[in-house]
């Protein structure tokens, strides 16, 4: 009988200790900031912060595992593009996790959304262009409309793309300056991509010769210059166009193909040197604009 009483006493003491410990833990977790009353109350407690921390750590671990799972068999270029997109997805997932965690903790998230509606509207207007850049960056990476190494023309500047990020694209110009292009420009504006389909581009050098020049000889010289110039492709074959009868000259264009349009200005400059030298050797004149001015002197009235 005594043993039974002792056992019941131990059980009561154990239950009491458990209840006291659990109540102490609950009281500790409930410490925090309490705003409002009833259903409209918002409680930011130690328990909520711990729950958010656990949710963030767990989400980060799962996202990291998923990222490694997807990128392990990708090419280096595709891997960098996927990581850029994944960063954007990660931020969206974090926001969803926070909302779900807060909701699970008993806080009505509609109150938070309503209370911060003005802030969201202000941020949306202020960051509108940023969102456009990010969305455009996702499209660029997904549809592969732009690649590292492409040569593009933006705002009359030609550059070679060396980095594509989620918000901006960076290119180096022909004078070794870096141009930073917001990604929304690739959607909202017309951008010339010289190497979208292939690396070969057609270039032209314009020249005018004096009236009375042998146009057949001019054509032959221009074709020879193209054939002798390093960097000009033999196929497709260069050709000459008789463009027009100008005010002071017969206008020709030498059309040719190269596979490095980024270095096009140097090739054109070298060809102009050769054209000028060959024209002098063959006594072909490159004219300059001339005007006949007639002066009429008015006789003084008598």
Strand order of the largest sheet: 6-5-4-3-7
Number of DSSP strand runs: 10
Quaternary structure of the protein: single chain
Mean pLDDT score: 78
User: What is the percent of helical residues?
Assistant: 40-55%
Distance between the termini: 157 Å
Order of helices and strands: HEEHHHHHEEEEHEEHEEH
What best-fitting shape do the alpha-carbon axes yield?
A: elongated
Give me the number of helical elements.
9
User: Strand portion, in percent?
Assistant: 15-25%
Biggest sheet overview: 5 strands, antiparallel
**Regions with little confidence, pLDDT below 50 for 5+ residues:** none
Kindly name the structural category.
Answer: alpha+beta
Radius of gyration, rounded? 37 Å
């Amino acid at each position: 009988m005594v043993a039974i009483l002792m056992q019941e006493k131990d059980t009561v003491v154990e239950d009491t200790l458990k209840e006291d410990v659990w109540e102490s833990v609950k009281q500790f977790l409930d410490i925090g900031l309490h705003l409002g009353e009833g259903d409209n109350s918002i409680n930011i407690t130690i328990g909520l912060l711990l729950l958010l921390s656990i949710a963030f750590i767990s989400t980060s671990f799962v996202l990291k595992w998923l990222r490694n799972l997807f990128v392990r068999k990708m090419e280096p270029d595709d891997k960098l593009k996927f990581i850029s997109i994944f960063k954007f997805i990660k931020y969206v997932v974090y926001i969803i996790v926070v909302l779900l965690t807060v909701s699970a903790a008993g806080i009505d998230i509609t109150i938070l959304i309503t209370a911060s509606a003005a802030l969201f509207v202000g941020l949306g207007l202020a960051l509108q262009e940023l969102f456009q850049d990010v969305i455009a960056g996702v499209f660029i990476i997904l549809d592969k409309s732009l690649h590292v190494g492409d040569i593009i023309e933006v705002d009359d500047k030609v550059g070679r793309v060396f980095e594509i990020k989620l918000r901006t694209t960076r290119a180096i110009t022909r004078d070794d300056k870096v141009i930073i292009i917001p990604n929304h420009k690739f959607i909202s504006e017309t951008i010339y991509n010289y190497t979208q389909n292939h690396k070969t581009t057609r270039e032209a050098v314009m020249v005018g010769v004096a009236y009375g020049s042998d146009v057949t000889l001019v054509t032959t010289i221009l074709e020879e210059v193209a054939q002798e110039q390093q960097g000009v492709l033999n196929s497709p074959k260069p050709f000459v166009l008789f463009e027009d009868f100008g005010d002071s000259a017969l206008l020709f264009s030498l059309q040719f193909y190269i596979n490095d349009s980024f270095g096009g200005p140097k090739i054109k400059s070298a060809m102009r040197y050769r054209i000028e030298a060959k024209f002098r050797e063959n006594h072909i004149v490159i004219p300059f604009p001339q005007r006949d001015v007639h002066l009429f002197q008015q006789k003084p009235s008598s």
